[in-house]
Amino acid sequence: EERARRGAAAARVMALVGSLDERWGPAELDQVARAASCMPDVRGCTITAVANRFGDAIVSEVGWRAGALLERVLEVGDLELRVELRYADEPGGEQLDAFNRLLDSMAAGFDRIEQIIRMAADAETDALTGVGNRRRASKALAQARANADLRQQPMSVLLCDLDHFKRVNDTYGHDVGDAVLVSFAGLLRQSVRAYDTVVRWGGEEFLVICPGCDHEGATSLADRLLASCSEACADALPPDDPQTTSIGIAVYPVHAQSPETLVSKADEALYRAKREGRNAHRIAQ
């Protein structure tokens, strides 16, 4: 009877993990932690999830915070899960076996999800530059806004456009233009945080999505990009023809209430930067 109870409790956790998809977040992790805390002899459960796409760690804690502890760290692709179960008494061999079976099943379930995420990432990647495409931008904008609302934090977007890029293609050819795009995309990737998103918005335009970033952080990033653009693209162009960029910045919820309007506001700021001389950034009004 006790084995049956343990098996049923573990099965509930595995069923929850099996029902998750790539959109899972804090609410779904809470459900898994709650189910695990109901296993026989378990008095509390804490699950900590860390991945670049989350920004800050996601922590779900249910039940006791004290007691005899069993813990294990799972590393599945980009995801790290720390699972802690607490017991009133020191767990024995049966509890340890049940814990290991549970964690092995969780690892298999989350591995399935990470594979789906990797496949989606391939479909959301710009073939030339290796950064995201517009499909990834839509998802990243929606997720950044959801996190901003949940945590009562701002989010910023930077829309970058390479100055006089048509002249680069016309003067040096599209191979050189492609090399400039690749170099600038590399600068963006090196300059942002692990949980920011860089996408090729179209042509020579790139969008940077920065969760939890206010106007000061966005302006600081824009300053670094302006200062580094010419050097980053130097290998692709003659030394007497440096590449510059112009940048428009918008912050949610100060400048807009939706991701679409936020990007539109950044676009307006970008073209103001171009009208006022290029090689500059402007913030939305």
Describe this structure in words.
This protein has a 5-stranded mixed sheet. The mean pLDDT is 92. The longest helix is centred in the middle third of the chain and has 31 residues, at 93-123. The relative contact order is 0.10. It contains 8 helices and 9 strands. With 285 residues, it is of the alpha+beta class.
What is this entry, summarized?
The chain has 8 helices and 9 strands. With 285 residues, the chain is α+β, with helices and mostly antiparallel strands. The protein starts with a helix and ends with a strand.
Observed structural traits:
49% helix, 9 strands, 285 residues, alpha+beta, 4-stranded antiparallel β-sheet, elongated, single chain
Q: Characterize the main sheet.
A: 5 strands, mixed
Radius of gyration: 24 Å
- Structural class label: alpha+beta
Helical content (DSSP H or I, runs of 4+) = 40-55%
Overall average pLDDT: 92
Poorly predicted residue ranges: none
The side-by-side strand order for the widest beta sheet comes to: 6-7-5-8-9
Number of helices: 8
β-sheet strand percentage: 15-25%
**Looking at the structure, what is the overall shape?**
elongated
Q: How many strand units?
A: 9
N-to-C span:
67 Å
| SSE series | HHEEEEHHEHHEEHEHE
